[in-house]
Write a structure and sequence with these properties.
This protein is 31% helix and 18% strand. It is of the alpha+beta class.
């Protein structure tokens, strides 16, 4: 039936809210503090990714040190797994010095074990 509100749903099906993984913004500060307090953890610092569901932050992760906080009153295992996957992808995209930059840095580095001759 077209007007039936249950049309298209099967018994036992769960409806899922869309989950958004995005970089944290300045206006997320209060929500990040709230998550840290709820999770009895420290607030993520540096480059931070957040998992947002229905307009609310449910989890956050520091890309720099891996610190994760999540709402203990919500099912967040999937959100945390997605945050970790996205952080790993961002780590893989980190710029790597060119061959020339690596060789140049190696040549400039002081050598250990060699005394200067006066």
């Amino acid at each position: 039936m077209a007007g039936d509100p249950g049309a298209g749903h099967h018994p036992g099906m769960l409806s899922a809210s869309p989950l958004t993984i995005r970089p944290a913004h300045g206006d997320d500060a209060a929500a990040l503090r709230r998550l840290a307090v709820l999770d009895a953890g420290r607030e993520p610092a540096g480059r931070v990714l957040v998992a947002e569901e229905d307009g609310e932050l449910v989890a956050a992760m520091s890309v720099d040190d891996g610190n994760v906080v999540a709402d203990p009153f919500e099912p967040t295992a999937a959100a945390v797994a997605l945050l970790k996957a996205r952080a790993a992808a961002l780590q893989g995209l980190a710029p790597r010095p060119s061959w020339r930059e690596r060789v140049s840095a190696r040549l400039r580095a002081p050598r250990l074990g060699h005394a200067a001759v006066a």
